[in-house]
């Protein structure tokens, strides 16, 4: 299948719309077979719901399931609700259990139950078993399809078992279990293939297998896979019983999902919002965040209100207030972006907290001195007042240090309070840089007002 660039999605959607208008469906099915599921999922979003349903019904069940797995939650929900429940059940029956569980999880509870009732009992129970785990846990993203062999098997028996296995995932490693299905080791495929067929599996297994429990956070799973360069990681119960595996493609999805969520939260946007969401849905979510931001803006306004007399006496101060607050806010964003990401990656620990704090304050001082000198020179050349330039420069240095302190300490404090640093950091840091920026600039100006005039 030829990959399609994102810019070509609209053209693909128009092409498919043209095929839908043809009386014969042969060319449409032939074209659909040549399109990668991810590209087809993007193109579907450009079509009306009725066109999506018609096109979707021309897909083989296997391909339809692969397309559903690539769709965002809102688009998937809209399409599934437009299809017959029998059709959806047939598609889910052909999907890997973990992907089918992801689809079911996006549906309203009543509809999900009705669709699960239509599935064969074994598949339904398997999907419901996966749904019992938290959405962002290892159990929630694992697949129960894996290859495991008994430790007393020979290599030849293990290879024969592997050939007969119906599992399409988890074959990067062959996991070794005992009589009670406890994970006791792992045998990489290469070692199995090159070993003598008569060799016992327990003689070539690696006992130091890296595993996670079903309730491990998916971010921790992603860190483990990245750190140890794994292609898959087994999921075990608290009794070390093998439950499933998480493959590297699932981890890539987790990394993408978590990075997107953090970026959205830093900007005060819902983690699952997309450009295809209905305006009403986006307004409801964004408005709440903006209302939360309003009190912090009022705090900064209150600080400015304390210096009304100084501003009235020297109106030029008002012209430079946005400079101090704006540069400080930008510096705060730079700092807390680095810190929040370090927390997410596990790079920031209690042991190196002081070192990181000293580093950020030093950066703030140096940047503040540099930007303060330039801003002060501009103020002098523009207004012909050298002291005004000094006041502006000192205020810039002060606010840059405040930005470094707030940008480092606020996300760390939120983490200690068991809160997501990506959610509240931006609001608090902006409030600090605005308020202290105005306080330092207008406070210094008030102290030196008679000299400034």
Polypeptide structure, described:
The chain is mainly α and 453 residues long. It is 68% helix and 6% strand. It has three domains: 6-141, MgtE N-terminal domain-like (MgtE N-terminal fold, Alpha Horseshoe); 148-256, Roll (CBS-domain); 279-452, Tetracycline Repressor, domain 2, CATH 1.10.357. Strand 5 and strand 6 form a beta hairpin.
Which features does this protein show?
3 domains, Tetracycline Repressor, domain 2, three-stranded mixed beta sheet, mainly alpha, CBS-domain, single chain, MgtE N-terminal fold, 453 residues
Outline of the structure:
The chain has helices at 9-20, 26-33, 37-44, 49-56, 61-70, 73-82, 85-93, 97-106, 109-118, 121-131, 138-141, 155-164, 189-194, 201-204, 218-228, 248-266, 279-305, 308-313, 316-345, 353-383, 386-416, 421-447, 449-452, and strands at 148-150, 173-177, 183-188, 212-213, 232-236, 242-247. With 453 residues, the chain is mainly alpha-helical.
């Amino acid at each position: 299948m030829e990959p399609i660039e994102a810019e070509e999605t609209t053209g693909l959607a128009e092409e498919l719309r043209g095929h839908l208008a043809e009386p014969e469906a042969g060319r449409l099915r032939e074209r659909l077979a040549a399109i990668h599921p991810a590209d087809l999922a993007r193109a579907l979003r450009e079509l009306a719901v009725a066109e999506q349903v018609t096109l979707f019904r021309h897909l083989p069940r296997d391909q339809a399931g692969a397309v559903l797995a690539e769709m965002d939650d809102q688009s998937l929900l809209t399409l599934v609700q437009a299809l017959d429940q029998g059709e959806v059940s047939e598609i889910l029956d052909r999907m890997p259990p973990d992907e089918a569980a992801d689809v079911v999880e996006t549906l309203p509870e009543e509809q999900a139950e009705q669709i699960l009732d239509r599935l064969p009992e074994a598949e339904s129970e398997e999907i419901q078993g996966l749904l019992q785990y938290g959405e962002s846990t290892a159990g929630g993203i694992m697949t129960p399809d894996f290859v495991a062999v008994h430790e007393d098997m020979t290599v030849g028996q293990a290879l024969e078992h592997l050939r007969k296995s119906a599992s399409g995932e988890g074959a990067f490693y062959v996991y070794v279990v005992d009589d009670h299905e406890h994970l006791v080791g792992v045998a990489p495929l290469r070692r199995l293939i090159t070993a003598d067929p008569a060799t016992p599996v327990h003689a070539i297994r690696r006992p130091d297998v890296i595993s996670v429990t079903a309730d491990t956070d998916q971010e921790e799973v992603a860190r483990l896979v990245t750190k140890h360069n794994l292609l898959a990681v087994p999921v075990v119960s608290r009794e070390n019983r093998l439950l499933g595996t998480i493959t590297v493609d699932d981890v890539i999805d987790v990394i993408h999902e978590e990075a997107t969520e953090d970026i959205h939260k830093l900007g005060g946007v819902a983690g699952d919002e997309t450009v295809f969401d209905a305006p009403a849905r986006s307004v409801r979510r964004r408005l709440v965040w903006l209302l939360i931001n309003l009190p912090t803006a009022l705090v900064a306004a209150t600080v400015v209100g304390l210096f009304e007399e100084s501003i009235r006496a020297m109106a030029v101060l008002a012209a430079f207030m946005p400079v101090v607050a704006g540069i400080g806010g930008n510096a705060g964003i730079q700092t807390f972006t680095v810190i929040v990401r370090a927390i997410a990656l596990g790079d920031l620990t209690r042991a190196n907290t002081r070192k990181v704090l000293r580093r950020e304050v030093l950066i703030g001082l140096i940047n503040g001195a540099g930007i303060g000198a330039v801003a002060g020179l501009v103020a002098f050349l523009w207004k012909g007042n050298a002291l005004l330039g000094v006041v502006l420069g000192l205020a810039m240095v002060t606010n840059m240090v405040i930005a470094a302190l707030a940008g480092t300490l606020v996300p760390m404090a939120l983490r200690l309070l068991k809160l997501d640093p990506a959610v509240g950091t931006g609001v608090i840091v902006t409030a600090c840089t605005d308020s202290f920026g105005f306080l330092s600039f207008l406070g210094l100006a008030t102290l030196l007002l008679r000299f400034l005039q």
